[in-house]
Amino acid sequence: MMKLTKTALYKLVLIVSVLAAVLEFFFAHPHYHEWWNTTPGFNLLFGFAGCWLLIFVAKIVMTPLLQRPEDYYDDGGDDDDE
């Protein structure tokens, strides 16, 4: 299995994003009625922003709500030895 470096992964994401924007520009369906559907690359940017929003919510907002201390289930006593 090939392991990608961080730089190679960023380059790959950039290439795929540019390719998707170019393909959307040339092959987008022209019968949309809203302005955002006729803007080239809008769906790509909207999806990218949506993914970053999900990551932000998961890491910043949900982590303090769901994460427990390491000794959460420990009662602190030695009652189990008796």
Characterize the structure shown:
- The chain is mainly α and 82 residues long.
- It is built from 3 helices and no strands.
- The longest helix is centred in the middle third of the chain and has 25 residues, at 42-66.
- The chain is elongated.
- The chain starts with 5 loop residues before the first helix and ends in a 16-residue tail after the last helix.
- The mean pLDDT is 82.
Radius of gyration: 23 Å
Q: How many strand segments?
A: 0
**What structural category arises from helix and sheet content?**
mainly alpha
Q: Mean pLDDT score, rounded?
A: 82
What is the succession of H and E elements? HHH
Low-confidence regions? none
Describe the secondary structure blueprint for this structure.
Layout: H1 6-27, H2 35-38, H3 42-66
